[in-house]
Amino acid sequence: DTNMVRLFSLGVLALVFWYGLPTMVVNCQYLCDSVGPSSSLDHVSQYGVTFQFKESRTVGQFANGDFWVLGPVTIIEISPEYNSSTRTHGFELNPASYTQTGFDGRLNGWSAALVPALPLSISGNATLVKVISRDPNIVVTGNTPGLQTAVVLTILDMVPPKDGVLSFRPAYFGHSTSQAKTTTLSTNDILWQKSPKIRPPASVTAIPSLFNVSRNFERVWLDHHRSWTVINYHPLDNMPNYGADIATDTAEAALRLMLNDVQATQNGTCAMVRYLQYGIDVWGELVGGMQWQPNGGHMNGRKLPLLFTAAFFGLQQIYDDVHTAMNATLETFSEDSEIYRSPSGEILFGLWVDCTIKGYWDSIASGNGNKACRDPYGYIDGTPHPGGFYQGCCTSMPWKDQVVALTLLPEIKNNWGNTLILEYPLCIFWLCSMTHHCYICAQMGDFWHIDSA
User: What is the pTM of this model?
Assistant: First the structure.
């Protein structure tokens, strides 16, 4: 239940929480139940996709469950087969473009030139991303996704340590020389001591299961198109469709992984592994030139898992890459550029992208148009109904979980690079308007003052 999960995130913030005792690390060779030993195979099948090789090759799995194959390898068939007539079920070798795609002809930026011909001989380290398209009769427009599933197959030039079962997959996107693509991170590199290991009080019962967190991040999240139409790229089986849901899921997962029971179970360690794998993928997207530019709710939620990954691996390079991108443009991350300091010093919500004074007033009068336009006079939050539904569903509401996570992990907070989100009064507009939740609002306000002091 969504409301129960939201109550969980607020419960994490409550002052009655205390630090739990250290927990035992689960002693298990395979941190995720879908991972097995390497073997010699002439094909690999996962999530409805099959890669057929010309001859048997050594095949194994990374810690999160994605497959690798020892190169050189020749791929002679991939099913479902790419259909050049309907331009569906495409695939790409080493995806590196944030403006073009070879996945599906209905996606913005389609380029048939990005779909390799088969047979395909691959040597060295490489990444093959294959998709299963939705029904070709579906018109992909607006918020409609065009993809059902996406699968990553990584080609390696040597067998990884321990057959890869403790290794993280290189980022699926980006230039081959980026550290996110060449990294050799292992589950042994996870800095578990960074977790506050919070023990929830008995009164908090609506806690998301670690099994569900693990499943939410089991498959690759395709998210590398620099436009709000990236929503059409998001595979239905893999990830949330809308950015506001991405922001909520990534923040609530981060909060769940800060509790004191994560290391004690296979579900917990697997959830952490898969969440960090997602963070590595976001890293690859960032250094590959991706930006999640402000556009209402569409582009929220990518920054927190990226910095969470930096913290739990102790990777200063990620922090440096984030700061470099933000110094180039504040529009690298949506959360940093959808709020601003008004002339009076207040932190307000609103964009000035594709907005005019006339457009703002037309939106106020009709309730239509750009829902995130800034108040041109700098007095109140933007949108046709300031503090209303749109902020509650899609922008400011999902930020609250991120702020809780920043508060609990000061290292991330100190590297966020923009303090406006910490100053923005998230509590007032969305929570106290719901009378039966006002007592939580009061607790949040008390905590806020203590933290600010």
Answer: 0.88
